[in-house]
Design brief:
Elements: E1 15-19, H1 27-39, E2 43-46, H2 64-76, E3 82-85, H3 92-95, H4 101-106, E4 111-114, H5 119-129, E5 133-135, H6 142-146, H7 148-159, E6 166-167, E7 172-175, E8 178-187, H8 188-194, E9 207-214, H9 218-231, E10 239-246, H10 251-263, E11 269-271, E12 284-286, E13 289-293, E14 298-301
Helix pairs in contact: 8-9, 9-10
Amino acid sequence: MKELVRPSRLASGARVAVVAPSGPVAEERLQAGLDLLRGWDLDPVVAPHVLDRHRALPHLAGTDADRAADLQRAWCDPAVDAVLCARGGYGAQRVVDLLDWDAMRAAGPKVFVGFSDSTTLHEAFAVRLGLVTLYGPVAAGVDFIKNARAQDHLRATLFAPESVRVVGAAGSALAPGRARGVTLGGCLMLLATGYGTPHTRADARGGLLLLEDVGEPPYSVDRALTQLLRTGWLDGVAGVALGSWDRCGPYQELRPVLADRLGGLGVPVVEELGFGHCEGALTVPFGVSAELDADEGTLTLDAPALR
């Protein structure tokens, strides 16, 4: 697995486009997120369909075509320095095949931030654009609006990425050891359901896999991990870092599932690294070389996430 191209860091006055490729967005939370971005001396612009709601499918922020058009237009706009997702939910899988990846590649590298359902887009940006992306808080997310640690870590990653090269919270070893590789990952269910599609990597060989999820009971987590094991997608993975498992059942019931399914890989596995659907979620880059130390509970980047 090769290291990907790092976009440029943001500077004061940078224009940031906010898009909604997945679920519908609450206007009051969006406005709060925009105010926070303005407080960072950024220039946020809202894509035309961010506040749309699909008439027949209320779990979507407008039609697939409109959500895809918003994302592509923002990415291809030379005045835009970064694209931030407004929220997760569900829907990115429905737009990823509608994007003109040749046009987006021609637009050059820029910063992309999103998490949860945006896992589909993180994989596509890696496969189609060869680009480092940031798995972090979304513009209209409660954690982004209200939690200082989440705000500060994302801000540091965007403006001074050399200051956050060591990522870690209260992590501990599920399987001990150290490993080196290139970071990838995101939401477990999106990776499992994306397997075999044109915009998902064929495997995680040589990678440091960062996994988390939300609202999935232990048996469902077991099912998704088992699928990735059976397909061979996890063959050759260098190490695994686990984030949050919010509303995935009592952790004392989930932990044995994680140990059972991942312990047989024979690689270091660290748990509770502090990213994902958790309070004060840390921002983690995908596509960068790093070292995972399961015993210390840290992920150390070889270079800053952004240039």
